[in-house]
Design goal:
Keywords: Signal. The chain is mainly beta. It contains 4 helices and 39 strands.
Amino acid sequence: MINRHFSTPVLVAFAMLFCTLSLAQKKNADYKIHLFKTNETFTIDGIGDEATWQKAETAKDFFMVLPMDDRKATQPSEVKMAYDDKQLYLLATFFKTPGNTYVVESLRRDFSFGGNDNFLLFMDPFNNQTTGFSFGANAYGAQWDGTMSNGGSIDLNWDSKWVSEVQSYEDKWVVEMAIPFKSIRYEKDVTEWGVNFSRLDLSTNEKSSWTPIPRQFPTASLAYTGTMVWDNPPPKQGLNYSLIPYVLGTVGNSSIDDIDYDNEFKVGGDLKLGLTSSLNLDLTINPDFSQVEADRQVANLTRFELFFPERRQFFLENADLFASFGYDEIRPFFSRRIGLGVPIIAGARVSGNLNRNLRLGLMDMQTDKMDETGLPSQNFAVLSLQQKVFSRSNIGLMFVNKESLDYEAMADSLKTEYTKFNRNLGLEYNLASADNKYNGKVFMLKSFGPDSSYNGLAQGAHLEYSSRNWNWRVQQEYISPNFTSEVGFVPRNNYIKLEGSVGYLFLPASDKVVSHGPQYTGFYYFNPSMKSTDYVSILGYAVNFLDRSSLGVDVFNEYVQLLAPFDPTNTDKEELAAGTQHHWNGVYISYNSRPKSLFTYNMTTRLGRYFSGGYRTNINAELGYRFQPYVSLGARLSYNNLDLPEPWYTTDFWLVGTEADITFTNKLFWNTLFQYNEQNKNFGINSRLQWRYAPASDLFLVFNNNEQLSPLEGNLWSLTLKFTYWFNR
């Protein structure tokens, strides 16, 4: 009853917007580039001397987006496109002032956008202004590719099979690409796609776009794409399949209690089958993820579980269909719950577009049983549907089911530890205005289990607005006491949350400062009786400089009433009693250096009071130095000092991570990460050598070492050699 009351204002606001949004047209539909079919054989070398490029239409006269969006770009850019029966081709030329140096972090694939001179292509094959694909390259040839969702979010964990080459000169750099039609999804017999081109030039601190885009939005915003016009519909794909087998061998040893490690030889792989040009079937058997990048450790002084992103390739294509339902802390489906310390036997996924407006996601995964712990074999099934409505909005449906197999044969003691089944059913509406200034969401989730203790509700709604100067957001959440999502990410329940923020940006006529302004943000938690349990109020001021450095200062006021016993150091010391109340304030100070420097640094400091009348001093720093484009060195430092009364007294601990990223070429990489977490008494090494000897095909050599420090001493190490190859037709 309480959650309905709080969602009413947001629902009313949605209703008021419907009339103005339903008939809106795409803003930049009149910006068009025409594509013509060619029969010429291309050599992808970054030179572009084929006859086709002399006749192809040119997209040029880019608009500046940053530092200001009211003028044309000062650095000229030109893009041409063509196609044949198998591939889409692109040739882009980026002129620069002679003498200006290129800024490139490394040759690493999926580079950081803000740290490299780069070019990005954004494609919306379904013209839904919501989903698509992005491809790009930096000035020294490192590739970028990802799937696009939610109108402009890009998931770089997705990799596809395509080729590109870059040539760099004193006054320009040139990128040439060939993207197989089989590497992307699109609707057949459609002759117009959404498209845009983006360039970042760090020597002039200028971001530009082929179509005009307001400065408050990313150039990836699909609401502002132009139109790619084909002379004929792109070719039908016919039979489209990819077979990606792997073989690996691992040696290792463990001296940690309760962890046995055996040498192994393993074979498995994936199959991708195009059911239609826009719908794909993915199958995996005996999958392995040993080459996946290690998680960056975080010092945890919160009362709740931390979120770590999914990086396993099988779960990534069209991942937004499964992962974007709800909010960051009310997710009914979180794929990392599958196969967490448990072997995955096999899995299947169907995902993509049934038509221009309807998207489908269907996944089924089967895990093995664990005799050591008694964990039964489990099946995970997810269904997601997303129907586009109005100009860019959609209605989504999700069903998540986790089922324990052979449950009745289990011992009664294990039945109290493992659930027979858990299910979530949800419905949501996502609002996105044609000009992207208004965005919002309303959703409802219902959980089911073997008895009423698993049956609960979760609900949320928000509305946000962003213009050149103003931004604001209002949000409301409610989770009942019994809401259960065993396959999701829901770190807390039994609360009502109200959230709001408002900010203003001044845009001065200055050759030093791009923008500056204040921002207020508040988070307020209540129990179902509307008694306050937590709140944080933050008032800040940020300054963004022309060289892309930034400075921020925030003062905060925080209150916590503990709902359960809690050790304020999270180091297994004495706990504060449930029901105790704590109130403090403090300040955050942050500075990010300019990215074009060879030496970069970002620093954040938190100073102020803490639990039980104590003090907390926190200093975080990220340091980097590059010998471009081959070597990038980095260090992450986090120091916490907790000055508390007895029995805690003074507790301090470090989190240190150092990383060496060596890119011998844009196909041969070596990355080594060292991490020391004094809070968890853990030291780890992850070292990965990757040779991309053919498109999307790799040889990996991965070394892992994890050492538990006193008093829990022990060591686990492994060395894995893995070979993958991408066959496709």
